[in-house]
Protein 1
Amino acid sequence: MFRSTQIYGALAAVLLLLLVPLATMGCSDDDEEENAEMMPGAACLSCHGPGGEADDEVFSVAGTVHADGEGTSGAQGVVVTVTDSQSATVTMHPNGVGNFFSEASLSPPFEVTVTNGNASSTMSGATGDCNGCHAAGGQVGRLVSP
Ligand code: HEC
Ligand code: HEC
């Protein structure tokens, strides 16, 4: 009796040691990494597009507006407006890290305006994965607040 209690006690301790770190890892994945502030600057639609790893949450348009070309912080108070080829318009307010995204049904090509107070910059002929082109080392530099 005494022996088997000791064995069960040891087994329980081992299980706890294994389970506690696993549970903690699960939490940080869900709460800190895979949310609206995830991976600023990354090409969102590579995962949030049809067939992507996060295609339960498909975006028609998504990206990041940075405060500066270094990409160290998100632009605050800017507005991103997208008008599609059928004149449907979506207005997005980037969050704390500068990320913006929409699941609205849109058909490219898009007319895009990024507004910061009285300043604005525009682009014609955009498609939805803004950071796919706008990235350090990409076809054009990071998307920066006007
Ligand atoms: C490497 C793949 C990958 C990239 C790149 C990526 N995501 Fe995600 N994202 C995920 C996964 C996986 C989840 C978990 C939930 C899911 O499958 O929708 C997630 C979840 C989210 C959620 C929460 C969805 C919900 O309802 O819980 C948002 C919002 C989001 N991502 C926005 C973005 C934005 C904006 C970008 C680009 C700046 C981005 N993601 C880039 C894989 C990615
Ligand atoms: C296929 C590549 C590509 C995609 C996708 C793309 N852009 Fe661009 N973007 C460019 C290029 C190249 C320029 C510079 C020349 C021009 O203005 O057309 C540019 C210029 C801009 C400008 C003008 C200011 C600047 O940084 O030069 C803004 C604003 C802009 N894009 C926003 C967006 C937004 C928002 C999205 C997503 C809806 C987007 N772009 C998607 C390639 C792209």
Protein 2
Amino acid sequence: MNKDKKKIQGLPAFLSVMVFVIVAALLFFIYRGDITVMAESRAEKGAFNRNNEDEMVSELISDRSGYLRIPLPDTAEESDITVRDEPFKKLIFVRINGVDEDYYKDNFLSGDMTGIKDVRYGYQDGVFTVELETEKIRVPVTEYVRGGYFIKVASPAKSYDRVVVIDSGHGGDDPGSVVYGIEEKKITENVALKLRDKLTSKGAKVYLILRDDPVATDEYIAGIADETDADVLLTLHTGADANTRITKGVSAKATFDIKEKAKILTRMLSEACDQKDLGLSNERLSGVAEITASPCIWLKLGVITNKEEALKMDSEEYQEKAADTITEFIDKELRREENE
Ligand SMILES: [Zn+2]
């Protein structure tokens, strides 16, 4: 007994220094806000508490900085995990299959919550689901390692070299111009859908808004372009000249920052679709183009009051070719060289 006591009293000075350093580092990490969150219980959705300090230290050492870590049992493979997002609702879902329900009673989420407003989770039929509600429209960046799934949220512009917001221009109760029994919205919606698929397959990040949803107002659409740092907000329309019914051709209006590019687009379309190039129109910007802070092209695919052109735009062949050409334009002319 006496001997042990002596030993402790005789602690070398450097050990005291080490203790001081560890405590200082711990306080630094707490101060920096690398808070560790934990699931209080699976029954309490979204309830997160500060972890105890011992666990916090070990988590911080093992975690990737900037990521939220979802612990995984050693048996969980990468193929057990699926990630899905609903960007307009600002939600990202991580589903983990085949995990024992009790596992998440003792293993807690931890790490960085930057850009994440709320975390909810639940367990049902062998699937543990984590639902992240983001502050803005964000894309998930993930990394799997055995024993942990790391996820953070990033601006689309940081993850993709082209971010495109497509607005169908009309939809729902608003058919746009209706001439010769042809609805403008049918043309613009068809092109918008084709464009989404073509651009997505070329690796662009696309946010398509069809105006059949009552929520899709000009303000809503402009907000999505601004929130995603879109390289272009493309709003699709047809032109009209009811007085002469002679005018035909492709034209555009554009915000100042993308006017020169818009000219290239109307030229490319006119060549590909055998249409007259009317170039940039002098009309003042209106609707979504007037509100958004993002580069915006208001594209008039053709003039619907001209019968020949209306029938042409209504054809599958035209819509396919127009979507191909707009895709080529965005690929060639709007690709950012580097992600800053
Ligand atoms: Zn229109």
